């Protein structure tokens, strides 16, 4: 079976494609991690972000939401200087801002997962693309999610970033239909 072309030639990207990408998750910590990493990617490649993922996990205590929400400006400056993360100050600050917004959602809804999955009525959107070239950069769903996240104070959650996030956490399955990792082909 032919699989998605985008990860080929990079071991880390291939492992991410095979083991994580488009796999539905409702794990609060993982959802926050992916939201943070997708925000860090804005304007960069996913390959760069994946290469720094372990440093991000170390710096942000494995994306512990409470820890990240309580970070001080001094702690964020220290992370910028001492860890192998993307050094963009606003992106680093967005981890704290977004953690605080996640906590607000958790108090309003049952969970962050419940809030997110309500945009798809709890079901993954399973696309049937024939090639990687058909996969859009954004969708009506990502525009809707982006607007709501921004309204709630989230940063670095534009429609394209939101679409990548939806793929990352399996709310959208964009494996090409012939890929063994497409929902229809996984056993």
Could you give a short account of the major beta sheet? 2 strands, parallel
The CATH superfamily is known as: Hypothetical protein, domain 2
Q: Which stretches are poorly predicted, pLDDT < 50 over at least 5 residues?
A: none
Strand tally, please? Answer: 2
CATH class category name: Mainly Alpha
Helix content: 40-55%
Rg of Cα set: 16 Å
Number of helices: 10
What spatial form do the alpha-carbon principal axes imply?
Answer: globular
CATH topology: Endonuclease III, domain 1
Based on the coordinates given, report the CATH architecture: Orthogonal Bundle
How many domains would you count in the coordinates?
1
Broad structural category: mainly alpha
């Amino acid at each position: 079976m032919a699989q998605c072309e985008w990860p080929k030639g990079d071991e880390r990207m291939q492992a991410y494609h095979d083991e994580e990408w488009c796999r539905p998750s409702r794990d609060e910590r993982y959802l926050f991690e992916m939201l943070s990493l997708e925000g860090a990617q804005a304007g960069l490649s996913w390959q760069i972000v994946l290469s720094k993922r372990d440093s991000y996990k170390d710096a942000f205590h494995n994306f512990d939401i409470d820890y990240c929400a309580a970070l001080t400006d001094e702690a964020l400056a220290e992370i910028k200087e001492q860890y192998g993360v993307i050094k963009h100050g606003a992106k680093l600050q967005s981890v704290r801002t977004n953690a605080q917004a996640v906590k607000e959602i958790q108090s309003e809804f049952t969970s962050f997962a419940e809030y997110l999955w309500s945009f798809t009525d709890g079901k993954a959107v399973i696309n049937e693309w024939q090639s990687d070239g058909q996969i859009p950069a954004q969708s009506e769903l990502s525009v809707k999610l982006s607007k709501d996240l921004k309204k709630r104070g989230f940063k670095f959650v534009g429609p394209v970033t939101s679409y990548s996030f939806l793929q990352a956490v399996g709310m959208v399955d964009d494996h090409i239909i012939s890929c063994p990792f497409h929902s229809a082909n996984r056993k």
